[in-house]
Design brief:
Elements lengths: L25 E19 L7 E13 L4 E3 L3 E2 L7 H10 L16 E10 L5 E9 L97
Antiparallel strand pairs: 1-2, 1-5, 2-3, 2-4, 5-6
Length: 230
């Protein structure tokens, strides 16, 4: 909850509840569903973006008669009469807030909202609350029941802004260098080749001269004659 104290700060937009349905434009009755306080938020100064300021913010979430929801912009927690929060509470309650006023007391309180549609610089249409006024007497029954709504998650206070780390320039990608295949050392392998063995010469059988056949020729020597006495 936000406790208002004397301050001269001014407000600025910070993240809020994640709403996805566009609230209808026009004047409608609403009920305050929740208050979100974001304390010790660091952000660049509007006058000099190089200077980081630390501030406290709050915003309100409303439920409408048609079941949609809408939220205010982020407002600096300040009791300064020029602050947006001071002007919003004065218009809503009909009286100026005092020092020590607790914004949490506005939860469950009815309101009459004036809603307009705007287009962001990125071309997205969104609903914005241009005025928050009290509910006219006798119209209290038109204020929707707060129990009908489910507050969306993701409404935690944003983390302080940190100095952006120095980003090194991206180096162009280089094609991977293909390494030449490693030549394996050649191992001298000794192959024993069987040498052809000399074929032994085949000796032809020696032809023995055929024995000369004795013939009845001159070579025949008759037996010596024996003188036989008659």
């Amino acid at each position: 909850m936000a406790i208002l104290q004397q301050s001269s700060n001014t407000g600025g937009p910070i993240t809020g509840w994640p709403l996805t349905t566009l609230a209808p434009a026009g004047q409608t009755f609403a009920v305050c569903l929740a208050v979100k306080d974001s304390m010790q938020i660091q952000r660049p100064s509007y006058e000099d973006p190089s200077v980081i300021e630390t501030k406290n913010f709050t915003r309100f979430l409303f439920g409408l008669s048609d079941g949609t929801m809408i939220q205010t912009g982020e407002m600096t927690i300040s009791l300064n009469e020029k602050s947006k929060l001071f002007k919003t509470l004065t218009s809503w309650n009909g009286t100026m807030p005092f020092s020590g006023f607790d914004t949490e007391t506005m939860v469950g309180k009815g309101a009459t909202l004036n809603i307009i549609h705007k287009t962001s610089q990125k071309g997205r249409e969104y609903a914005d609350i241009s005025a928050i006024m009290p509910v006219m007497q006798g119209m209290e029954a038109q204020v929707p029941d707060r129990s009908r709504f489910v507050i969306p998650s993701g409404d935690e206070a944003p983390a302080p802004i940190q100095q952006a780390p120095v980003v090194q320039p991206v180096q162009p990608m280089q094609a991977p260098i293909q390494q030449a295949p490693v030549q394996q050392p050649v191992t001298n392998t000794t192959v024993n080749v069987d040498q052809p063995q000399p074929v032994p010469a085949v000796q032809e059988p020696v032809q023995q001269p055929a024995p000369q056949q004795q013939t009845m020729g001159t070579q025949f020597t008759g037996p010596q004659s024996t003188n036989v006495p008659f």
